[in-house]
Amino acid sequence: MINPIQQGYVASSTLNTVQTNKETKTNDTQKTENDKAAKIAEQIKNGTYKIDTRATTSAIADSLI
Q1: Is the pLDDT of residue 27 over 60?
Q2: Could you give the CA distance from residue 12 to residue 17 in angstroms, rounded to a whole number?
Q3: What is the pTM of this model?
């Protein structure tokens, strides 16, 4: 017979690991997005930022489909 206390601990540990993995992925994504935004802001400030109109129009068209 499985001890209910031990079983609850195992389930809780598994859920905590999954939650930690999701938080790590979220933090990594946020850091990447912040890095991209900072790079674009720096390029705009320096006057070197260029818009790729073909990629932009393609992305807009794809999002509308």
Answers
A1: yes
A2: 9
A3: 0.49
